[in-house]
Amino acid sequence: MNSPKEDGDDDTPVKDPVKYGELVILGYNGSLPCGDRGRRKSRFALYRRAKANGVKPSTVHILNTPQDSKAVHSRGQHSISFTLSRNQTVVVEYCHDNNTDMFQIGRSTESPIDFVVTDTSGGGKESEDPSIAPSTISRFACRVVCERSPPYTARIYAAGFDSSKNIFLGEKATKWKNPDGHMDGLTTNGVLVMHPEGFPDEPKQGLWREISVCGDVYALRETRSGPSRGKLAEGESSALRDGSLVDLCGATLLWRTGEGLMRAPTLRHLEALRQELNASRPQCPVGLSTLAFPSLPRSHSLEERQPWVYLSCGHVHGRHEWGQRDSDEPRDNEEPAARRECPLCRSVGPYVPLWLGCEPAVYADAGAPTHAFVPCGHVCSEKTTRYWAETPLPHGTHAFRPICPFCSCALSSPGWTRLIFQGPID
């Protein structure tokens, strides 16, 4: 877990803080490959600040010259600028809000960003400098605004304020004036949100929607960066629920509420499940060697007693050269999984090492690690594999696909397999 005290943040209390919730980047399995450092990490905990830093709309200015715009921005207030033409810009000033805390998320490493998000589209690989590396994630992607009083509702908004406290929507950006007169718009690649029902007890996927700069909810555009907004989703809210997914076009974040985290499994619980599984002394039916899952959090190197699985049938073995066949064709720049013939049932398919899922926030329950995602081999509970295998996430400009929440690998139908362990022979 993150410390309540973030780097350079003097507004966050350290004694008995109220925890609004956590944002977890899918695909990193508990930590960034090079380790969590400062504002760059695989998860970000949102705590109530000692002093509110939220803002809310106040004065609207209609400007006809660049000089007018400069005069408005010199006041040091937060603002959103909507450029309608070369000769007209609408600037909405924001004033301080004592009732909310604001947290900003994006690729930029500048100080206004609380949570620096790295791109996971490259298979979980981490860039050395996310602020300059090629990425579809916006430098100031979105902001989460939390109410400081119970029930501590958190709302998502597209775009974040930059170092000059401005959100700038240029002439080519998708923007409009609503019937009530207030301006709104969308970011280039959009901020998409999916609110599930009943997560994690009886989870049911919701519809993917797009969130506007002012927090309104719209149906998706025809393509991710299309010029026309979707239809307004009447009656729907930008308020995040436990299990809500936020897609930034390059990384998908999972929101867990403070209450939801209290009921979620912990890393200690997952470690206990690992030890219990290893204590049953599963064996390789070919080499008759005892298998054991590596300790949590796992290393990225294979160990001698690492369990392997035939994904087509679920039979668990130790590593061996039995039934080796040609490899599958590589997919998405990943190494191909070896295709082997299972010595127990003769089924042919990918043969991969098994890894325990180390990110507790993505678990739908605290059940035993009995199932593995296909084709990556990450192991968790049956309920968790079924939920994520049935949850399509945005991919590309208009496609959706289910992924493994631990490594972001695209899943092959049906997405999971039940593991069949061979017990010790007495």
Automatic annotation (TrEMBL):
Superkingdom, natural source: Eukaryota
InterPro entries, A to Z: Pellino_fam, Pellino_FHA, Pellino_RING
GO molecular function: ubiquitin protein ligase activity
BP term (GO), one: protein polyubiquitination
Domain Pellino FHA: 15-272
Keywords annotated in UniProt: Phosphoprotein
Bilayer-crossing regions: none
A Pfam short name: Pellino_RING
Record domain Pellino RING: where: 277-426
Alphabetized PANTHER family for the sequence: E3 UBIQUITIN-PROTEIN LIGASE PELLINO HOMOLOG 2-LIKE (PTHR12098:SF7), E3 UBIQUITIN-PROTEIN LIGASE PELLINO-RELATED (PTHR12098)
Family: Belongs to the pellino family.
Name this polypeptide is given: Pellino
